[in-house]
Amino acid sequence: MNYLEIAGALIGLLYLWFEYRASIWLWPVSVIMPAIYIVVYYQVGLYADSVISIYYLLAGIYGWWMWLRHTPDKGEKPVSGTPSKLLLPMFVVLLVVFVLIGIILETCTDSTVPWWDSFTTALSIIAMWMLAHKYVEQWLAWLVVDAVSCGIYVYKDLYFTSFLYGLYAVIACFGYLKWKQLMNLSYERV
């Protein structure tokens, strides 16, 4: 039994609760959880997931800073939709990162799932950036990442983590609806 994996999964549930509520407390938790998963993923040969956990840790610091930089007179950064002008650049970044990581994993590692690992990693980079900017569609990106990751983790015998990501996928649906509601409320106040 991997106690580190269990600890990471439990902290992940706490993270999810804070994210669902659009609470700034998701950010400190988002620094702790990936620190644990760097080790867990490396142990089972999910190298891109291990590296993406380093990114998550750094993105957690960035997201925390982004959410904190709004002054009390301006209020908290509101939830908003992703500007359409960002969709093409985000897609290009997704494709480039996906191909680069996939090639590296296929040629330089013993990964048994290089392209799946690469896909979830590339999309996670985009989703985490969207979360830092409080774009509601980040939930849709996470839904795809979580569903694919759930299957990968079952394949890799990471059952607690697979359960966590299955739960993430379900809650991503509810999170999207909740954030849409928050976005609509902030538009009504304007």
From TrEMBL:
It comes from the Bacteria. It holds the Pfam family NMN_transporter. Keywords: Cell membrane, Membrane, Transmembrane, Transmembrane helix, Transport. InterPro entries: NMN_transpt_PnuC. Belongs to the nicotinamide ribonucleoside (NR) uptake permease (TC 4.B.1) family. GO terms for cellular component: plasma membrane. Its main location: membrane. GO terms for molecular function: nicotinamide riboside transmembrane transporter activity. It is a multi-pass membrane protein. Required for nicotinamide riboside transport across the inner membrane. The chain crosses the membrane at residues 24-44, 50-67, 87-107, 113-132, 162-179. This is Nicotinamide riboside transporter PnuC. The keyword Nucleotide-binding does not apply. It is found in: Cell membrane. It comes from Phocaeicola vulgatus (strain ATCC 8482 / DSM 1447 / JCM 5826 / CCUG 4940 / NBRC 14291 / NCTC 11154).
